[in-house]
Target: 3-hydroxyisobutyryl-CoA hydrolase
Amino acid sequence: MANRLSVVEATANSNSVIFDVLPFAKQYKMGVIQLNRPESLNSLTLPMIQAIYSQLEEWAMDQTVVAIWLEGAGAKAFCAGGNVVDVYRSLEKERDTSYCEQFFREEYALDYLLHRFSKPVICWGSGYVMGGGMGLMMASNYRIVTEKSRLSMPEISIGLYPDVGASYFLNQLDDDAVARFLALTAYQVNATDACEIGLATHYLMEQDCAELKQRLMMAQMTDLNPEKVTLIIEQALFTLSQSDDLPLLKPELTALSPTVVSLMTGDIHNIYASMLSYSPECPAMIKAKNTFLTGSPLSAHIIVQQLEWAKHQTLESVFARELELSVSCCKQGDFSEGVRALLVDKDKRPKWLYGRVSDVLEEKVQILLGNKKLIDVMDAEG
Model:
């Protein structure tokens, strides 16, 4: 890419995020953000988050920059999430939540900035898009998937819940059952399903990335006009998305819609019973069932209640509550044990606070959700 900008990243690995500018409609510019940690599937570190936020603020003030492009380095992932191992290690070392709170606060601030950004944001979401990567993608105006895309929210496996604004954007889907299912099972959504249910806006071939950039670079726009910028982007996306060469990916999740609705009906106890008795046949649903049943029972309770609470809430209020909830999960939930088992020791044998969904104390759930004081639970536990 041309015109590489300097990157300010205190304590970060060199070039873990790279900023460029490309021409847009010849005489204007498109700011390019490349997450550049392919060895870790471009997971977001705090210095990366800080650097991206700072650069976006600068580009917001630059009238010659008319659009933003987000991408990940390497062929495997756009972004597999936030670097929660750093958060885990800070909790183990410091025994307080100061770094944890800073990480989530600044990650959510970046997501919110993108949601409200004054210029169109294009996300090239090829490969794995998970957790924090979904936060970036879903905050973008144009969410592009390819034949290699796999979108998921896997937080139940680390004792967390779908955050990064997911309490908001999952509730924007047409089907509540699908929102619950994605949040509880970490189901990996392919490109066809992602477009069908509203997680993605366009399906292109992976090889079309360079062609799309070229079309944006070579478009015509004599005067600065936000509506013309939008038209240029949408025309380029429309043209490429109509290609006869696009692989026909079979819809999987949408084809199972009646099953998903049946599984996700009722409260978390009903859902648990339905999933326990469910006998899936396809590999994706077998994996989804296993992820739910082996995930944090406490997280399962939180997920259902958090999604219900977030209906009709503003984006601002969702992020505010998610910050409090995420810190609470780190302080007195299953987060540390989940990260240890899955990402640190990798034994995949977490010792959750509760063995089963039916064992979880409702008072504990309400404390983590901020609805009840700790003393009440201590009294209830006797």
